[in-house]
Structures are given as structure tokens and as C-alpha cells.
């Protein structure tokens, strides 16, 4: 039979340790990692910095909306010229721009120039805009916050 009697001293230490673990878990300071191969528990310190600011949510929402309107207009313009879906236009990849037919390359360049201007006017660099777009596309908390911002902008 097992003996589960714990002395008061051990019980106090256990309660104190539990409180410490609860507090650190709530604040995200320390997280345990168990290594099965070494049969050990190690603690890792993680910093949970917010990866975007409220102003970036607002700026991305405005820029993203404007870029999407421009993208749809450009898509329709190119489609009417080539009578099919336009080729992919990736503004920060010169190889895709070289693959665009000459008769629509000017439209594609104009789209990219206007996109860069819109992004800059909304206080973002193009690389930051792309980072935020990737975060938006993952449909996590950033996506929901941008959706809320877009609703505010419509009112």
C-alpha cells in the first residue's frame, strides 16, 4: 500500500511552488519543457512581445482596403485586354514582372507603384505591410482586429 501522508513542511513548500508556477504561467515568464530522453524538466524564459501595434492594425486595415480596391480594378483592366485571367503580379519579385506580357507591363508597373504609394501613405514600409499581410492571412487575432478596424472605417 502507498503512503500519501505529507508533512506540513512539505505541504507548505508544495503550495508555495504551485503558487509560483501559477503566477509565472499567467504572466508567461517561464514555461516548462519535459525531455523524455533525459527524463528532466527544464524551464525556458519566453518573452511575449506584441508583434503589432494598434496603429499598425489601423494603418494595415486602411492600406489593405485601398490596395484591394486597386487590385480588383487592375485585374479587370488587364482581363479586358488579354481576355483571360491576368498573370500573377508580385511587385517585390522582379522575375514575375519580366514574365508579364509587354502590352500589360505598364499597367502592372503602375499597380505596383500605386501599391507602394498607398502603403507608404499609411505609415508602413512595403516589407512591414507584407509581414502584416502574412499575419492577416493566417486568420488569427490580427485578422480579427483588422476586421474590427475595417468595420469602424466603414462607419
Q: Would you give an account of this structure?
A:
This protein is mainly alpha-helical and 155 residues long. It folds into 2 domains: 8-45, no CATH class; 54-154. 65% of the residues lie in helices and 8% in strands. It has helices spanning 8-27, 54-82, 94-98, 102-121, 126-137, 141-154, and strands at 30-35, 40-45. Strands 1-2 form a two-stranded antiparallel ribbon. A hairpin with a 4-residue loop joins strand 1 and strand 2. Helix 2 runs antiparallel to helix 4 (102-121) and helix 5 (126-137) crosses helix 6. The N and C termini lie far apart (70 Å). The model is unreliable at 1-7, 9-37 and 39-49 (pLDDT under 50).
How much β-strand is present in the residues?
5-15%
- Mean pLDDT metric: 77
Secondary-structure element series:
HEEHHHHH
Widest β-sheet, arrangement of strands:
1-2
Largest sheet: 2 strands, antiparallel
Instruction: Show unreliable segments.
Output: 1-7, 9-37, 39-49
What radius of gyration results from the CA coordinates? Answer: 26 Å
Helicity, as a percent range? 55-70%
Overall geometry comes to elongated
H/I helix tally = 6
Q: Give the beta-strand count.
A: 2
Give the terminus-to-terminus CA distance.
70 Å
Structural class computed from helices and strand pairing: mainly alpha
Number of domains: 2
Amino acid at each position: 500500500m502507498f503512503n500519501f501522508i505529507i508533512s506540513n513542511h512539505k505541504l507548505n513548500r508544495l503550495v508555495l511552488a504551485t503558487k509560483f508556477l501559477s503566477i509565472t504561467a499567467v504572466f508567461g515568464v517561464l514555461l516548462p519543457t519535459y525531455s523524455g530522453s533525459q527524463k528532466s524538466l527544464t524551464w525556458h524564459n519566453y518573452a511575449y512581445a506584441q508583434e503589432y501595434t494598434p496603429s499598425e492594425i489601423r494603418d494595415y486595415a486602411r492600406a489593405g482596403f485601398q490596395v484591394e480596391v486597386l487590385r480588383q480594378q487592375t485585374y479587370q483592366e488587364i482581363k479586358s485586354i488579354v481576355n483571360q485571367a491576368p498573370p500573377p503580379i508580385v511587385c517585390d519579385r522582379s522575375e514575375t514582372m519580366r514574365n508579364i506580357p509587354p502590352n500589360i507591363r505598364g499597367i502592372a508597373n503602375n499597380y505596383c507603384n500605386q501599391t507602394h504609394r498607398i502603403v507608404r501613405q499609411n505609415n508602413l514600409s512595403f516589407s512591414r505591410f507584407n509581414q502584416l499581410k502574412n499575419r492577416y492571412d493566417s486568420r488569427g487575432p490580427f485578422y480579427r482586429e483588422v476586421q474590427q478596424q475595417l468595420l469602424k472605417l466603414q462607419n
